[in-house]
Amino acid sequence: MGFWSFLRRLLTVDDSIIDETFSLGYRPLGERPDDDQWSPRHPDDEIPAAQAGLSGTSDAGDDGGKGSLFKKPTPLLGAKKEQAEQMSPEKALQQQVSTSLDVNLALIKTALRVPQNKDIIIREFVIGNPGVRAFTVYLEGISERNTVNFAILEPLMLLSYIEGPLPEEKNVFDLVKDKLLPGNQVKEHDKIQPLVQATLVGDTALFIDGQNKGLVIESKGWDRRSPDKPITEQVLRGSQEGFVETLRTNTTLIRRRLRTPALVTEIVQVGALSKVDAAIIYIDGIANPKLIDEVKRRIDSINTDFLPESSMLEDFIDDFPGSVFPGGMPTERPDRAAAFLAEGHVVILVDNSPFALILPATFFAMMHAAEDYYVKPLLGTFLRLIRAVSLFLALLAPAFYIAIANYHQEMIPTDLMLSIAASRETVPFPIILEVLLMEFSFELIREAGIRIPGPIGPTIGIVGALILGQAAVQASIVSPILVIVVALTALSSFAIPNLNLTFSIRVLRFGFILAASVLGLYGIALALFVLIIHLTSLKSFGVPYMSPVAPHRPSGDVITRIPLYQARRRPQFLRPLDDIRQGKINRPWDPSTDKDKKGGKDK
Amino acid sequence: MSYRLPEGHQGRREAFALITITIITEIFLSIPQKLAVDGKSAAWIIILIAGALSFVGLYFILALSRRFPGKTIVEAGEEAVGPFLGTIAALAYFIFFMASLILFLRQFSETIITAFLPQTPISVITAGFLVVIIYSTYIGLEAISRTAGLLIGFIIGSLALITVLLIPFMVASYNLFPFWGSGPDIVARLGATRTSLFGEILIVGLIAPLLSGKELGRVGITSLAAAIGIMTFVEVIYLIIFPLPASAVFTFPLYSGARLVFIGRFVQRIDAIFVFVWIITALIKLAATMYASAAVLARALKLPVFRPLVFPLGILVFAISFTIPSFPDAVTIDSRYLRTYGWIPAFLFPALVYLVAVLRKKGGRGSDLAQSNS
């Protein structure tokens, strides 16, 4: 800005800022219905109001006024088409398929917002010899091009000549459906709504002139990720497949592992705006029917507009939204989902989510990893012991450090105490501030490490963890022993296999830090007791969260991992319909097989 | 009229853990020392005799529960001896539980000060305990007993560990002699009154509706037996480690034992770890007695819920626990009154109620039918 224009600005009144304001505006008062009566509405749902316009039926000669004295004048075809073009999209969706192809075209265009909507492809053509006009509707990108070209358009346009001349008008539809469409899934509908809905998931809709029905031909096919390694639950030994975003691929991944007709995949649609498919998977005859019904009941009762992820489904159906603990067990591994199904759990898959939700959730199952079962029993037990220790470290290590350094110095051996005291001598902060500072920076590194774009992520990790830690110690802001404690805590929290549980423990840790800084070990004991009482009071889908330990159910699969041939029964806390998993003697050739001991242990 | 407070499920193992822990927690306080003063080297025999006699009391509680199935001792009492006397019995139970709660809370708060936080005012400690207990009681009996079931392994494990660590100090097994201590007659008389040590077994009568009759009997007998075993064991160890003149002076015998532990230079002051476990044990006991007080009162007052009573009772407990002038007074009241006359509400009342019920032919199968008809 030059000097003169600056002066001019000072001397002129400029209120143009008011003119430029853009606002989305406010909804006029009173327009919004009462909150209690409101339910999420698909924008295309029919508005419940008396509506004039096209009569629902398609035949020109038919009308609604049967008993009335005056016959309603039948609109001419041209008028009908015009009406369809001017109709609101939601009304167009409610219409019947008309016998007139032009009216149908107009209805489809109105409903799908053509020509603004460029994803929609409408192809008009002629079938057969004397020539019947027809058109197909499909969506660019989610319908497979080859299917549309070679399994729909080609037979209709070219191969229809093989049949010879077309029959009379009323038989054309059956001919097309039975002889001319080689697609593996073909359905007929006589309303606009299902036809449009089908095109939205990738199928192709076909309309033929003179027919008051439309056809839906399966042509789904879009770019999808093929099963890849799971990111959050990796194993050294065992299956390396993970779920992907496509529901059907995921159900296949489970079904490939459980080849039984008893594996049931029920699909329900959730959400009013976008009907998202959710699959409820269970094994009929093993899973408790009451559990299945409860899961279905809760999912059916979801009354929302859009559900992009299975973790959001968890929000709607879990038992204790107020608790920090996860109400469902997410897993990315089809083998783990299959194993839980075989025990009698229910698994929920949501379209577009690579995480299955296992229900009901129990604490100890979340402390287990798939790998425990893929190594020898003793080694599996060892892994679990390490994890149990890591759980306590992740939860309590900083709190214990504070308590001991602040209140109970006599607990530590003198030499160690001296070295702690020496290392803390130059640190100007009280211990609690030091710990909070370190814990906070650690959480910061973790959070930033996830959000930072891929290539620089590891760099930030190194910068944050190494350089920051080293510099902080050298600058005497934190003591080196505390760095060890925090690093140990961080490592331990990563040893917990379930991502959601790790998160809960991370948050709870701060509670323990506070308790320890106020009341020392006594505070930790109080907080721990509250935590345990809370855990034992939780129930997920009627199953106590701490099963099978509290309440006690005999099981060798908690901290220890008994050999699989001894695990004769399915988890009893699930109350499966059939709780026997295998025969009593699985190693008959083994001379050490003790018939009495087997099965007796978990009886 | 039969109403049930919503108390959730109760497993056999969880109930066992709850009752055992509620009884044995007493040994963390000065009881082993008081017994040593009274019974000399035969202090452990007092526990055995008292325990054996408690089984008689337990028999009546169980018999009462079996005679009035689906009812707690409170409602059974009202049906057996009428609303007036029944309410008096219920009040006696209530006072017993409250006294146990208050005295234990006061003494254990003092333990915490000695062991952990010497400069903290006692009101902070007691308030901390009460907040947690009130929270737990609000959550309910189910969670408390499941917590007990979850932790009993750790608790018994800690006692076993301390025993193992104290083996180097168990050199004087002759401390257990003379066998009859202060004399068979005194030991026997003390044994009779010290049944009050096991008064908390009364909880069996409160959880009766949640378990079947057979399970209840098993729970009562096993938990009482386990409690007797553990307490006798601890007393014996205590007497062996500390010869008589010494064992009569420690205020917190078990804590004094834990402080002795010394294995090499590294493992020398691990008493804090034990006290840590004991705090959690004590919390279970406190929550259980708090629940028992609230539930007995709610049932005696015919309230459909006990939760509204919990907070006021907590305030009451807080206030009363500070009316005791000093820690030695609390110890004296505990030993001289609660654990001497506690058997009257805990064992005598249920027995009397049962006998009256038998005499008046109340309860049993006949009255059950009559009730379902009415």
Features:
heterodimer, A: 603 residues, alpha+beta, five-stranded antiparallel β-sheet, 19 helices, 10% strand, disordered C terminus, B: 374 residues, mainly alpha, Amino acid/polyamine transporter I, 16 helices, 74% helix, globular, disordered N terminus
Write the layout of secondary structure elements.
The complex is a heterodimer of chains A (603) and B (374).
Chain A: H1 3-11, H2 16-20, H3 77-86, H4 89-94, H5 101-111, E1 120-127, E2 132-139, H6 145-157, H7 169-180, E3 186-189, H8 192-200, E4 204-208, E5 214-217, H9 247-257, E6 263-270, E7 276-283, H10 289-300, H11 310-317, E8 329-331, H12 334-343, E9 346-350, E10 356-359, H13 363-366, H14 377-406, H15 414-424, H16 431-451, H17 457-474, H18 480-495, H19 499-537, E11 539-540, E12 543-544
Antiparallel strand pairs in A: 1-2, 2-4, 3-5, 4-5, 6-7, 7-9, 8-10, 9-10, 11-12
Chain B: H1 12-24, H2 31-39, H3 43-67, H4 73-115, H5 122-139, H6 141-165, H7 184-193, H8 203-206, H9 213-241, H10 244-247, H11 253-260, H12 271-300, H13 307-323, H14 327-341, H15 343-359, H16 364-373
Helix pairs in contact in B: 1-6, 1-9, 1-12, 2-3, 3-7, 3-9, 3-15, 4-5, 4-12, 4-13, 4-14, 4-15, 5-12, 5-13, 6-12, 12-13
